[in-house]
Amino acid sequence: MLDVSLPDIRDLVRRRRPGYSLEAPFYTSQAVFDLDLEAIFDRHWIFVGVEPDVPEPGDYVTVGIGRQSIVIVRDDDNEVRAFHNLCRHRGARLLHEERGSVGNIVCRYHHWAYDLTGALLHAEHMGESFDRSCHGLVPVHLRNLEGLLFVCLADEPPADFDAMAATMAPFIAPHDLRHCKVAHRMDLIEEGNWKLTMENNRECYHCSNHPELGLSFFPPSFGFDPADISPEQAAEIAAYEAAKESFRARWAACGLPVGPIEDLVTRPTGFRTERLVLSGAGESQTMSTKIACRKLLGSFTEPKLGGLHFWTQPNSWHHFMSDHTVHFSAIPLSPERTLVRTWWLVHRDAVEGVDYDLERLTEVWIATNAQDGELVGYTQAGVRSKAYRPGPYSPFTESLVDAFTTWYVRRLSAHLGIADEPGCRAA
Predict the structure, then answer these.
(1) How would you class 179 by CB atoms within 10 Å of its CB: exposed for 0-12, middle for 13-18, buried for 19 or more?
(2) Strands (DSSP E) along 240-291, which ranges?
């Protein structure tokens, strides 16, 4: 497929039709992909990891976002910091592994050494006039939301993160991620554009493809057409509403905020949260719908607390239960490839094989991720077709997909200076 020019992209943005999927170049074009990196991933708060990834001083992880490599490290004062992963001498990559532990950060090329606050400690043969204080590592903006790590590559990041964090902290804090550990992490490459990954995540119209995940949800929670309800569906809806009342009493007794709170479209750091009813035993997203880890999180003593979901624009989704949490980050690799990274967290004192079985803990989302990756691949193959035209979203099950694509087009509009266009006004 021929690529598009910047004027073409402006036209695509201007004629975006609310309530419909995006035109094909948004999913296939190298020029659009490059603009996505510049306008979205270089300028917004990107979810990149969890605090338990760096549990001890000196522990680090490296994260790639487009052409940028970032180091996230815990310093000797237990503060988590982020830096560009390059030496201030001649730009060599500093840390080459995905994760590890260091005393200081030392460049392999000419052995410039930095401490864990980013200060340059040692640089040979630079002369008496050389000022080490001017050559520390380049910092990256980092925010730690109750154990969730977000970075922003912009010189001036969106100022709305702190307001979002203040809203979300009471929802997340009871799960006490800072006292969790990473039980498992997994990388999956989806053969599709990152926006298709996110669109797929923002709806459950397709959730009949997820029999494992479906065990823990009432079908009406996926959405339904109120004008087309069978007697069987009516019974399911009644059971769902009764379960919601029961769970609301449990949540109130535990002092847990419920939501929903939704601000997905108009702000740069769009987000949504809601505490969810789970079916069956109602405890966790497992094949049995019971907890997978006997050591509950935080100060929880009640396992049957359903789940909390949390989304952020542009690239994350999260599920919190009483016994474990699951976190997802989508990072674009190319116009048609996306990295989906998943973390499973349990209480840091939980012992594998005693308090939890790793297969039981992870099997639902390992299966669901694979199914979603396949569906995204099907869609990517379809949008390459010359027959593809944007299709309508269901108003009952895909309104949140429309919210994502509307947010995305508005952010491109803001970046490109396009304003006052129907459906794509810059926020």
Answers:
(1) middle
(2) 261-263, 271-276
Where do runs of H (alpha helix) occur along 89-193?
161-172
pLDDT digits (tens, 9 = 90+) for 130-187: 999 999 999 999 999 999 999 999 999 999 999 999 999 999 999 999 999 999 999 9
This prediction's pTM:
0.95
Q: Beta-carbon neighbour count of residue 82 at 10 Å?
A: 25
Residue 66 domain boundaries: 52-157
Mean pLDDT for the chain overall: 94
Residue that is last in its domain, among 116, 132, 157: 157
Is residue 94 within 8 A of residue 105, CB to CB? The reply is yes
Q: What is the pLDDT of residue 268?
A: 97
> Please, are residues 71 and 136 in contact by the beta-carbon 8 Å criterion?
no
Q: Which CATH number belongs to the domain containing residue 141 in this structure?
A: 2.102.10.10
**378-382 contact pairs (CB < 8 A, 24+):** 379/192, 379/196, 379/200, 380/27, 380/191, 380/192, 380/193, 380/196, 380/336
Compute φ and ψ for 112, nearest 5 degrees.
-65, 140
Residue 342 pairs with which residues in a beta bridge? 186, 328
Checking DSSP bridges between strand 271-276 and strand 261-263, what pairing results, if any? antiparallel
- Would you state the structure tokens that stand for residue 111, as one six-digit string? 């052995």
Task: State how beta strands 120-122 and 141-145 pair.
Answer: unpaired
Residues 212 and 361 in one domain: yes
Kindly give the residue spans of alpha helices, DSSP state H, lying in 224-344.
231-253
The predicted pLDDT at position 423 comes to: 45
Specify whether the CB–CB gap between 320 and 172 falls below 8 A.
Answer: yes
Query: 157, 182, 217 — which closes off a domain?
Result: 157
Q: Are 18 and 130 in contact (CB under 8 A)?
A: no
**Which residues are CB-neighbours of 115 under 8 A, at least 6 positions away?**
75, 76, 104, 105, 121
**Alpha-carbon torsion 243, 245, 248, 252, what sign?**
negative
Radius of gyration of the chain from its Cα atoms, rounded to whole angstroms: 23
Whole-number pLDDT of residue 2: 61
